């Protein structure tokens, strides 16, 4: 069986060694890069399934590396940030990262997150195209259109929309959405859901003047409304 490739983009030899060993133990063929520019080049060359990407890098920073990788790859991207770098986490998720861990990270925690991502099926069991007015979702093609224009979503954004549209008007808690997208052994906090849903809403054209398909149920969670409406601003 051909082993999947993991790319570690990290300028710290210690963290690069720890991450490489961990990923090799998970069955990956591991390649490494020490600068942002090298990371983008390695991602193009090796087409990794997973990229472990430090935010602070020589040359291009991790945020820009993630943005450029998303232009040609749908691989899993896990950002590595400083413990207090909340802004970096949000920016990384906005640029298309699937998850983030903080330094010094727990090898056990990182392993659990990687396993949860890889177990998540990428093909919906329901092959029917779902149409909701201006919004169409094709589970087989993993394609989303708004007013007949293709909308580029990250893996997590698509999986959230897939989960919500599969059960219109059902209200999901953040925990239920995390379980559906990342698996039952998710070990992160639920703020990641807020960021990904905000990005998804923006890409669907929902804003302060146009409340759309994804609704916040205050104190509980989120639901998908089959018919979007012009209503007051939403909040996440």
TrEMBL record:
Q: List-wise, which residues carry 4-aspartylphosphate?
A: 54
Kindly give the CDD domains that the UniProt entry links to this protein.
REC_OmpR (cd17574), trans_reg_C (cd00383)
Domain (Response regulatory): give its ranges.
Answer: 5-118
Q: Does the keyword Ubl conjugation apply?
A: no
Ordered alphabetically, the record's keywords are:
DNA-binding, Phosphoprotein, Transcription, Transcription regulation
Q: Which residues form the OmpR/PhoB-type domain?
A: 127-226
Q: Which residues bind DNA?
A: 127-226
Fetch the InterPro entries from UniProt.
CheY-like_superfamily (IPR011006), OmpR/PhoB-type_DNA-bd (IPR001867), Sig_transdc_resp-reg_receiver (IPR001789), WalR-like (IPR039420), WH-like_DNA-bd_sf (IPR036388)
- Extract the PANTHER family matched here: DNA-BINDING DUAL TRANSCRIPTIONAL REGULATOR OMPR, REGULATOR OF RPOS
Query: Know the name of this protein?
Result: Response regulator transcription factor
Q: Which organism is it from?
A: Phycicoccus sonneratiae
């Amino acid at each position: 069986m051909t082993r999947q490739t993991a790319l570690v983009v990290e300028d710290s030899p210690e963290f690069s060694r720890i991450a490489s060993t961990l990923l090799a133990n998970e069955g990956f063929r591991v390649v490494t890069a020490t600068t942002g520019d090298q990371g983008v080049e390695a991602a193009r060359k090796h087409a990794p399934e997973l990229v472990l990407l430090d935010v602070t890098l020589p040359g291009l920073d991790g945020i820009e590396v993630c943005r450029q990788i998303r232009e040609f790859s749908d691989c899993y991207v896990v950002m590595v940030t400083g413990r207090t770098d909340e802004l970096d986490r949000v920016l990384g998720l906005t640029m298309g990262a699937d998850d983030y861990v903080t330094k010094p990270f727990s090898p056990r925690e990182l392993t659990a997150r990687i396993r949860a991502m890889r177990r998540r099926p990428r093909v919906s069991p329901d092959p029917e195209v779902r149409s909701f007015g201006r919004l169409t979702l094709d589970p087989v093609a993993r394609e989303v259109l708004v007013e007949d224009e293709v909308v580029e979503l990250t893996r997590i954004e698509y999986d959230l929309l897939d989960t919500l549209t599969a059960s219109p008007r059902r209200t999901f808690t953040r925990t239920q959405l995390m379980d559906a997208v990342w698996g039952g052994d998710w070990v992160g906090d639920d703020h990641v859901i807020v960021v990904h849903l905000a990005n998804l809403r923006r890409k669907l054209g929902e804003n302060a003047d146009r409340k759309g398909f994804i609704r916040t149920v205050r104190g509980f969670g989120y639901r998908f409304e089959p018919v979007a409406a012009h209503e007051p601003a939403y909040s996440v």
